[in-house]
C-alpha cells in the first residue's frame, strides 16, 4: 500500500537520509500500520468539523510589548558553526 | 501574429510588513536593523519547546487593512503551518494562513489617467517573515533578526491588464497602508514587497497562460518596467513557439530585464495543516465595529470630498491625498486660512518644491500648516504682497519662524498708508522731473516706469494696487 | 529515612519540622542514584548543582520560606528545558543542547522550592512505550531488571520506584506518564489538556502533549500538580480555569459516585491478571460508596489509528526544527562536503534521529502530504471530534471511568521493539484521554504472578482532576503495594 518509492519520496520531503534496507523495511512496516488504520475511513464523518485542540480554551492574545533577548551571544551559544554572530551553513544557491 | 493579438494577465502579491513593536508571535523587537542575531528570542530561533503567542496589534493592523481594502473579515480564521526546509526558516515551517485567511473578497479602486479602475482582492492573510541569508560563494550566513516579523500578504485577483495598472494599483495599496499607519511601504528596505504574477494569452480566450512570478522588485517604476519586459518576453516566446516555463524570475534594473533564478525548483508539497499551538483567531462584532470606527478617511474618498468641500480641481485633490500627512497639512492650512485654492497652490507649489529639493517628507516640513495659513491670511488682507510672500515663505522654510515675526524683523510689511505712498510718489517725481514732463507731454507708456520706480523706492513694500491707483491720480497733475 | 518508602509529603513535613535538611535529603537521593543508576539507567544527566540548590533551599527555609515544595528534590524528564542544564529529549540530535531558558513548569516548581536532581531517561522525543528508543541506553524496570520500565517517561517512573527521587515530572502524549507509572508501581497523572503549560517542553505532538507528576502517592501527585498548573501567558493553549487546592480537598467518601466501566475496555485482549487487578480496584471503590454503571465507547478501536495519524503528523512538523543550523547535532561534513542543502539536511537528520523517530516522521509526513491529507490527517481530526462526543455523552451517565492502563504488565526488554504495529496497539486504553483532552491517572492496584506491578486507570471530565485524586486515594488506601521493588534489593 505504501511503496518503497513512496517512502523514498516522503523521506526526501522530510529531509531524512535512509538506507535502501531501511526503505524496504519502512515500506513494509508502514503498509501494515496504514492497513490497520484503514478502519478510520469507515467512520461516518459527514459534516463533522475537524478538531485540532481537544479542550475548550478561551483564546488570548499578547500585548505588543518588546521583551528583549539579552544578547546575540546567548542565541549563538548552541550553534554548530558560526561566523561572528551569524549561523553558518553550506552555500544555498548554486 | 502581432503583439496586439496578445493580452497580459497580471496579479500582484504584496507583502506588507506591519509596524508593530514586537514580532507577530514572539516578544523580541520587530524593528529594522539591530546587530547580527540580536533580535532573537528563543521563539524566533525555533528552540525546542518554544511556543507562539499572537500579537494583538498585528491582528488589529491586519483587520484595519482588510476593512480598508473592502474585504470581508473572517470571524474565525486559522493559522496554518507551511512546511519546508530552508536555513532562514528556523522552525522548518512558516506560520501563515491557508484556507481560512483573516481577510477575503475585497477590492481596491484607483485612478489611472483620469479613469477610475478596480482590482479585486482575493485575500489578505497574516504570516511571519523569514530571516535573512547572506550568500558568499563558500557558504551562507544566517541572520534571524527579521524572522517572525509580522507580514500581511495581500493577494490580488489576476485582473490587472497592463504594467501601468499594476504599478498604480501597488501605489494605491501603499497609500492606503500609509494612511492606516500599519506599514511604512518602503520598497527599498523591503518593508513592502511586490511579487508579480504575469502570463499572456491570446485575446478573446479565457484560459490562463503559463504563469511566471517576478520577484526582487524594489520600486514602483521597476514594477512597471519588469512587467513590461516580461510581457514582451512572453509574447516573443509565444510568437516563436518557445515554451514558457513556470518559474520565478528576478528583475535586474540595470539591464532592464528579467532572468531565471536558475535554482532547481523542487516539487513543493507544503503540507499545510492547522497550527495546534495557536487557537483559531475569533473576531466578534464589537471588535470589528470598534476598528471600523477608527478607520481614517481613505485617499479616494478624501480627494472627492476635497473637490466638493474646497472647490479645488480634481488633479489637485488627487495629488494632495497621495500621502495622508500632505492631505492633513493641506486641510489644516485651508481651514485656518479660509482660502483653499491658495492653500492648495502653496502646498503643491512652493512647499513641495522645497521638500523635494531637500528630499524630505511633509511630516518634517519646517513650515507648519498654521504658519502657512497665517501667511495666506496676510496676503489676503494685503499686509504683504504676493511677491513679498515668496521671500517670506523661503525665510519661513529656512528658519521655521512665523510669517509675522519674519515680516516684522525684516521690516517687510506692506505700506498701505495712502499718505506715505503719496510721499514716495512725490519723491520719485522730484527725482525724475524729465520723465514726468514727458509723460504729461503724452508719453503714457512711461506709466510702467513710474510704478517700478515707486515700488523700488519703497523697497517693494508699497501695496502695488494702491501705487497704481495713486499714480493715475497724481500723474494727471 | 527509607528512600523506597518515603513520600514527598513526608519529606516536606520532615524538612518543615527540621527533622532533616534539604541538603541531607538531596544527598541521600544522590547516593541512591550513584548506587543504582548504572543498572537502571533512569537518569541521562545528574544535576551537579543539586547540592548547591539544596543549600540555598535550607538557607531560605531558615529564613522562614514556606514554599510548598521548599527543599524537595525532584527528577525531571529530559523533555523539559532546564536553563543551563543539558536537555536531550533522549535524542542524539540534542546530545549537547544547553537551553538558555527553562520550561514554565520547571520555573514554577523552582519557585515552589524544588531542587532539581537531574534529567531522566526516556524514549527518544517521547516516541515509544518502553524507554528502549533512547539514544542514551535503554532504561530498566526496578521491579525486575529484565523488564522495561515502560515509556516514554520510563526514567521518571523508574527513578521514583527505585528511590532515586521522591517525585518526578513526566510528559504524556498517548499514555507516557500513566503506562510507565503502572509498570513501575507508582502514581502518574496526565492532567486536562490546557491545565499545564507546554512552554519549554520539547514538543512531540502539540495537541496531545501534557506534563504531569509521577509520585509514590496520590496526595503527592496532587501537591506537585498544584504547583505546576494554571494559565501561562507563553502558551496560548493553557486554560484560565482556577487551580483548586486538590490535595487539601481529597475526599475518600465516594457515596453516590457513578463509576462508568467502558465495556470495550474489558474485551478479550485484556489479560486475566490485569483484569483481576482492575476488578479489585473496582471493588474497593464500590466499598467506598461508588456505584458502577456499564457504558459504551464504540469508537475505542479507532483511538490508536487516530492517535498515530494525529501525533505523527504534528511530530513531522514539530521536529523539522532539528536541522543542524542553530543548535543540536550536525553531521560531519569535513571529509565529504554536502553537495547541496538537501544533502546537508538529510545527513544531519538521518544521523541525528533514531529509527522510531524517523519512522514516525515519515508516517506523519505521508499523512499530511498532498493527496493523502484528507484521507489521513483530516479524517483523523474529524473522527477525533466524534470520539470526544462519545466521551462527553458517556460522562452524562457517570462521574468517572475506570479501566486498565494496559492489556498486560511490563514486558521483557527487546520483546516488542521490532514490531511497530504491535507496539502501537498497546496504547489502546491510554490514547483516548489525550485525543479527547480529559485527565487520567494511573494508581497501583496489585501484582501479576511474576511480581510485576499493575495499575488501574481512572478518567474524568475536563478539569475534574479532583475526582481522580479522590478515587485514586481510595484505591491507594485499599490496595497499597506491600512489597518493594525486587530488582534493587
What can you tell me about this protein's structure?
The complex is a heterotrimer of chains A (94), B (477) and C (489). Chain A is built from three helices and two strands, in the order αααββ. Chain A has helices spanning 4-13, 20-37, 72-76; strands spanning 82-83, 86-89. A two-stranded antiparallel sheet of chain A has the order 1-2. In chain A, β1 (82-83) and β2 form a beta hairpin. By secondary structure, chain B is of the alpha+beta class. Chain B has helices at residues 56-68, 163-180, 220-240, 285-294, 299-310, 314-320, 324-337, 340-358, 369-380, 386-399, 403-409, 418-431, 433-440, 447-457, 464-475; strands spanning 6-17, 72-73, 76-77, 79-83, 93-97, 103-112, 115-128, 132-135, 140-143, 150-156, 192-202, 212-215, 247-252, 257-260, 273-274, 281-282. In chain B, a hairpin with a 4-residue loop joins β13 (247-252) and β14 (257-260). In chain B, α2 (163-180) packs antiparallel against α3 and α5 (299-310) runs parallel beside α7 (324-337). Chain B is elongated and about 100 Å long. Chain B starts with 5 loop residues before the first strand and ends with a helix. The model of chain B has no long low-confidence stretch (mean pLDDT 91). With 489 residues, chain C is an alpha/beta fold. In chain C, 38% of the residues lie in helices and 13% in strands. Chain C has an eleven-stranded mixed β-sheet, with helices on both faces. In chain C, β2, α4 (104-111) and β3 (115-120) form a beta-alpha-beta unit. The longest helix of chain C has 21 residues, at 374-394. The radius of gyration of chain C is 21 Å and the shape is globular. Chains in contact: A-B, A-C, B-C. The interface between A and C is large, with 51 and 78 residues.
Amino acid at each position: 500500500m505504501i511503496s518503497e518509492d513512496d517512502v523514498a519520496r516522503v523521506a526526501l520531503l522530510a529531509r531524512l537520509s535512509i538506507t535502501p534496507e531501511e526503505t524496504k523495511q519502512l515500506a513494509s512496516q508502514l503498509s501494515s500500520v496504514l492497513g490497520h488504520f484503514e478502519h478510520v475511513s469507515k467512520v461516518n464523518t459527514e459534516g463533522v468539523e475537524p478538531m485540532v485542540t481537544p479542550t475548550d480554551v478561551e483564546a488570548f492574545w499578547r500585548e505588543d510589548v518588546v521583551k528583549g533577548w539579552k544578547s546575540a551571544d546567548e542565541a549563538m551559544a548552541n550553534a554548530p558553526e558560526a561566523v561572528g554572530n551569524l549561523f553558518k551553513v553550506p552555500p544555498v544557491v548554486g | 501574429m502581432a503583439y496586439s493579438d496578445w493580452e497580459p494577465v497580471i496579479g500582484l502579491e504584496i507583502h506588507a510588513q506591519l509596524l508593530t513593536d514586537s514580532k507577530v508571535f514572539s516578544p523580541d523587537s520587530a524593528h529594522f536593523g539591530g546587530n547580527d542575531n540580536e533580535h532573537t528570542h528563543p521563539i524566533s530561533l525555533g528552540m525546542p519547546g518554544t511556543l507562539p503567542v499572537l500579537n494583538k496589534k498585528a491582528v488589529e493592523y491586519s483587520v484595519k487593512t482588510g476593512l480598508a481594502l473592502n474585504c470581508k473579515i473572517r470571524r474565525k480564521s486559522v493559522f496554518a503551518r507551511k512546511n519546508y526546509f530552508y536555513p532562514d526558516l528556523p522552525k522548518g515551517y512558516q506560520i501563515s494562513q491557508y484556507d481560512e485567511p483573516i481577510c477575503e473578497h475585497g477590492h481596491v479602486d484607483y485612478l489611472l489617467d483620469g479613469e477610475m479602475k478596480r482590482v479585486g482582492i482575493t485575500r489578505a492573510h497574516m504570516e511571519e517573515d523569514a530571516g535573512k541569508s547572506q550568500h558568499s560563494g563558500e557558504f551562507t550566513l544566517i541572520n534571524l533578526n527579521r524572522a517572525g516579523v509580522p507580514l500581511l500578504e495581500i493577494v490580488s485577483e489576476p485582473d490587472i491588464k497592463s504594467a501601468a495598472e499594476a504599478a498604480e494599483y501597488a501605489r494605491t495599496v501603499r497609500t492606503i497602508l500609509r494612511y492606516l499607519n500599519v506599514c511604512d511601504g518602503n520598497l527599498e528596505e523591503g518593508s513592502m514587497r511586490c511579487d508579480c504574477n504575469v502570463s499572456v494569452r491570446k485575446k478573446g480566450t479565457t484560459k490562463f497562460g503559463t504563469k511566471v512570478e517576478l520577484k526582487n522588485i524594489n520600486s514602483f517604476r521597476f514594477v512597471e518596467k519588469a512587467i513590461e519586459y516580461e510581457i514582451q518576453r512572453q509574447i516573443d516566446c509565444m510568437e516563436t513557439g518557445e515554451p514558457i516555463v513556470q518559474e520565478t524570475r528576478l528583475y535586474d534594473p540595470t539591464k532592464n530585464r528579467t532572468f531565471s533564478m536558475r535554482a532547481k525548483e523542487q516539487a513543493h508539497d507544503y503540507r499545510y495543516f492547522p497550527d495546534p499551538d495557536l487557537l483559531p483567531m475569533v473576531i466578534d462584532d464589537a471588535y470589528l465595529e470598534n476598528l471600523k470606527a477608527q478607520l481614517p478617511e481613505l485617499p479616494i474618498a478624501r480627494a472627492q470630498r476635497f473637490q466638493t468641500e474646497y472647490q479645488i480641481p480634481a488633479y489637485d485633490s488627487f495629488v494632495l491625498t497621495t500621502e495622508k500627512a500632505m492631505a492633513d497639512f493641506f486641510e489644516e492650512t485651508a481651514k485656518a486660512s479660509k482660502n483653499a485654492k491658495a492653500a492648495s497652490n502653496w502646498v503643491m507649489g512652493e512647499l513641495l518644491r522645497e521638500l523635494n529639493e531637500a528630499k524630505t517628507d511633509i511630516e518634517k516640513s519646517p513650515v507648519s500648516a498654521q504658519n502657512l495659513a497665517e501667511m495666506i491670511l496676510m496676503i489676503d488682507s494685503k499686509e504683504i504682497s504676493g511677491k513679498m510672500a515668496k521671500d517670506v515663505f523661503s525665510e519661513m522654510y529656512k528658519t521655521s519662524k512665523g510669517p509675522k515675526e519674519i515680516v516684522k524683523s525684516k521690516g517687510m510689511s506692506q505700506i498701505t498708508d495712502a499718505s506715505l505712498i503719496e510721499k514716495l510718489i512725490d519723491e520719485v517725481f522730484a527725482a525724475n522731473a524729465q520723465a514726468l514732463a514727458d509723460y504729461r507731454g503724452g508719453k503714457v507708456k512711461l506709466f510702467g516706469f513710474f510704478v517700478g520706480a515707486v515700488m523700488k523706492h519703497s523697497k517693494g513694500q508699497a501695496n502695488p494696487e494702491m501705487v497704481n491707483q495713486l499714480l493715475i491720480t497724481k500723474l494727471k497733475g | 529515612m527509607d528512600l523506597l518508602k518515603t513520600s514527598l509529603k513526608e519529606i516536606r513535613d520532615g524538612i518543615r519540622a527540621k527533622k532533616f535538611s534539604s541538603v541531607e535529603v538531596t544527598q541521600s537521593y544522590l547516593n541512591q542514584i550513584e548506587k543504582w543508576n548504572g543498572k537502571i539507567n533512569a537518569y541521562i544527566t545528574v544535576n551537579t548543582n543539586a547540592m548547591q540548590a539544596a543549600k540555598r533551599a535550607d538557607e531560605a527555609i531558615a529564613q522562614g520560606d514556606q514554599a510548598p515544595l521548599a527543599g524537595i528534590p525532584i527528577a525531571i524528564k529530559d523533555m523539559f528545558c532546564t536553563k543551563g542544564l543539558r536537555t536531550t529529549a533522549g535524542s542524539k540530535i540534542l546530545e549537547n543542547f544547553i537551553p538558555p531558558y527553562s520550561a514554565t513548569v520547571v520555573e514554577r516548581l523552582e519557585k515552589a522550592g524544588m531542587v532539581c536532581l537531574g534529567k531522566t531517561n526516556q524514549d527518544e522525543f517521547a516516541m515509544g512505550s518502553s524507554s528502549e528508543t533512547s539514544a542514551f541506553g535503554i532504561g530498566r524496570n526496578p521491579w525486575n531488571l529484565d523488564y522495561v520500565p515502560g515509556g516514554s517517561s520510563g526514567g521518571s517512573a523508574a527513578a521514583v520506584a527505585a528511590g532515586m527521587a521522591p517525585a518526578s515530572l513526566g510528559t504524556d502524549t498517548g499514555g507516557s506518564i500513566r503506562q510507565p507509572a503502572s509498570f513501575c508501581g507508582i502514581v502518574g497523572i496526565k492532567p486536562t489538556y490546557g491545565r499545564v503549560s507546554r512552554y519549554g517542553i520539547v514538543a512531540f505532538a502539540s495537541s496531545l502533549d501534557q506534563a504531569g507528576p509521577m509520585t509514590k502517592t496520590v496526595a503527592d501527585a496532587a501537591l506537585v500538580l498544584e504547583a505546576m498548573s494554571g494559565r501561562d501567558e507563553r502558551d496560548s493553549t493553557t486554560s484560565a480555569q482556577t487551580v483548586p487546592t486538590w490535595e487539601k480537598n481529597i475526599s475518600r467518601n465516594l457515596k453516590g459516585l457513578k463509576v462508568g466501566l467502558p465495556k470495550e475496555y474489558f474485551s478479550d485482549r485484556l489479560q486475566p491478571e490485569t483484569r483481576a487487578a482492575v476488578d479489585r480496584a473496582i471493588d474497593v471503590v464500590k466499598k467506598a460508596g461508588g456505584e458502577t454503571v456499564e457504558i459504551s465507547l464504540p469508537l475505542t478501536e479507532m483511538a490508536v489509528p487516530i492517535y498515530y495519524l494525529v501525533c505523527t503528523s504534528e511530530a513531522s512538523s514539530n521536529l523539522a526544527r532539528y536541522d543542524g543550523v542553530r543548535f543540536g547535532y550536525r553531521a560531519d561534513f569535513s571529509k565529504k562536503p554536502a553537495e547541496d542543502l538537501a544533502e546537508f539536511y538529510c545527513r544531519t537528520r538521518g544521523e541525528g534521529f533514531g529509527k522510531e523517530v524517523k519512522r514516525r516522521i515519515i508516517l506523519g509526513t505521508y499523512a499530511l502530504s498532498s493527496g493523502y491529507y484528507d484521507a489521513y490527517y483530516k479524517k483523523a481530526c474529524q473522527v477525533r471530534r466524534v470520539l470526544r462526543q462519545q466521551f462527553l455523552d458517556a460522562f452524562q451517565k457517570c462521574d468517572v471511568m475506570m479501566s486498565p492502563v494496559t492489556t498486560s504488565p511490563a514486558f521483557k526488554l527487546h520483546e516488542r521493539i521490532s514490531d511497530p504495529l504491535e507496539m502501537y496497539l498497546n496504547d489502546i486504553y491510554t490514547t483516548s484521554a489525550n485525543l479527547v483532552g480529559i485527565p487520567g491517572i494511573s494508581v497501583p492496584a496489585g501484582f501479576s504472578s511474576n511480581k510485576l506491578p499493575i495499575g488501574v486507570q481512572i478518567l474524568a471530565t475536563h478539569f475534574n482532576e479532583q475526582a481522580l485524586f479522590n478515587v485514586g486515594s481510595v484505591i491507594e488506601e485499599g490496595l497499597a503495594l506491600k512489597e518493594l521493588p525486587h530488582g534493587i534489593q
